[in-house]
Specification:
With 193 residues, the protein is α/β, with parallel strands linked by helices. It has two domains: 66 residues, Methylated DNA-protein cysteine methyltransferase domain (Double Stranded RNA Binding Domain, 2-Layer Sandwich), CATH 3.30.160.70; 109 residues, Winged helix-like DNA-binding domain superfamily/Winged helix DNA-binding domain (Arc Repressor Mutant, subunit A). It contains eight helices and six strands, in the order E-E-E-H-E-H-H-E-H-H-E-H-H-H. The strands form two sheets. Strands 3-2-1-4 form a four-stranded mixed sheet, covered by helices on one side. Strands 5-6 form a two-stranded parallel sheet.
Length: 193
């Protein structure tokens, strides 16, 4: 029987729940409970489930650095389980650099399926590895945020950490106008070119 290890990692946004197999990270979820992560594991895999916080020390260190505002590449072994299309989309998302954005349309084109924008969006929504596979960096082509499993407030927060949006709580709108593009067209050009 396969083994799945899990633990929570403290963060500024609350506990982050992680699960891994011997092959690599399987799930990383924000704003979940222990019951929710255990239920998700049981739905996906018939496995022996073991609480093992020590197994996630590298992820813990990377997340601490990320929340401290450091540019972090989550180059960890991953155990991706989904359809071939989902895994292709998740790998493409994993390549979106820190502090950059992509759109659902660009993502569909990047995986060779430019007309499959909705399917790409569904794959983004099914991403089991929040932050590690940075689906928070995918927005709508009109520049609006789109969705996020942890909620749009959390998506804004993560993008603010990366300097893509003004940091949370910042109220100096005059300096924001100087630092960020003024029109939606300029915003798209600023982040996508």
């Amino acid at each position: 029987m396969e083994r799945v290890y899990y633990a929570s990692i403290d963060s500024p946004i609350g506990p982050i729940w992680a699960a891994a197999t011997d092959a690599g990270l399987l799930q990383v979820h924000l704003r979940w409970s222990e019951d929710a992560i255990l239920s998700a594991i049981k739905r996906r895999i018939d496995a022996q489930i073991i609480h093992d916080p020590g197994r996630f020390e590298e992820l813990r260190g990377l997340l601490e650095a990320y929340f401290d505002g450091e540019r972090v590449a989550f180059d960890l072994p991953l155990d991706l389980r989904g359809t071939d299309f989902q895994k292709t989309v998740w790998r493409a998302i994993h390549k979106i650099p820190y502090g950059k954005l992509s759109s659902y349309g660009r993502l569909a084109a990047a995986v060779g399926r430019p007309r499959a924008v909705r399917a790409a969006g569904n794959a983004v929504g099914a991403n089991p590895l929040a932050i590690v596979i940075p689906c928070h960096r995918v927005i709508r082509s009109d520049g609006s945020l789109g969705g996020f499993g942890g909620g749009l407030d959390l998506k804004r927060y993560l993008l603010g950490i990366e300097g893509v949006l003004p940091p949370p709580g910042r109220r100096d709108f005059q300096s924001l106008e100087r630092e960020y593009p003024r029109t939606r067209k300029d915003l798209l050009r600023y982040f996508f070119e």
